[in-house]
Design brief:
Length: about 210
């Protein structure tokens, strides 16, 4: 309820219909009530938010890998944003509201360095993942001392592990030992390489495995 302080022609305080009266520095003022703005949540808006949310949440597990693997792909934005842009356009499957990540199309690194040749990954039955590839040093810009980028994503626990420079191209193999708590979980594996100048290869999806 509004109160008139100085008669019918005086200022007032409180609410009268869509108007609010008050006093500021001794002067009577009036203002309109703020309108409630309703933003319609259309199917298209909901679908877009779901797509961004799913890929954004997934990629948040790979912050370290993306910072290295997409650094030289920054184009006025950030490595994270470039990775988001690519994977949003290429690594989703399904239709709203049943979206999922297409792990075979996920890219955790991108660049012009020659990638791995004939790379494979498999569970070794002893609590680890065996990764192997053919040493293709000398092919294009591939060098023996290019460091390997290893990423493994545990879908069951929605967490990932990134290992940088844990092996060199010339090694031809690498063994990753899972955390003990991963036993029985489903995981996905990617690898790539980067050279001493920071140039990376496009990551390669290798396998879906069940951790021993």
């Amino acid at each position: 309820m509004a109160k008139i302080k100085q008669g019918i022609l005086g200022g007032f305080s409180g609410k009268v219909g869509p108007v609010i009266g008050s006093s500021w520095k001794g002067k009577a003022t009036m203002r309109a009530l703020a309108l409630h703005v309703h933003q319609p949540r259309t199917l298209l808006q909901l679908a877009e938010r779901a797509r961004f949310g799913l890929i954004g949440s997934f990629l948040s597990n790979f912050t370290q890998a993306l910072a290295v693997g997409w650094k030289l792909r920054e184009n006025g934005t950030t490595a994270q944003n470039e990775a988001m842009r690519y994977n949003l356009a290429n690594a989703l499957t399904g239709t709203y509201p049943q979206y999922d990540v297409d792990y075979q199309k996920v890219r955790v690194s991108d660049g012009n360095l020659v990638g791995a040749d004939n790379a494979t990954a498999s569970d070794n039955g002893s609590g680890g993942c065996d990764v192997s590839w053919i040493d293709n040093s000398g092919v294009g810009n591939a060098r023996p001392d290019d460091g390997m980028l290893f990423c493994i994503y545990n879908k069951t626990k929605d967490e990932a592990v990134t290992r940088l420079d844990v092996a060199e191209r010339s090694d031809g193999s690498f063994v990753y030992t899972y955390p003990v708590s991963w036993s029985g979980d489903t995981a996905y594996v990617w690898i790539g390489f980067r050279n001493s100048a920071g140039t990376c290869s496009r990551s390669q999806y290798l396998a879906q495995i069940v951790c021993s």
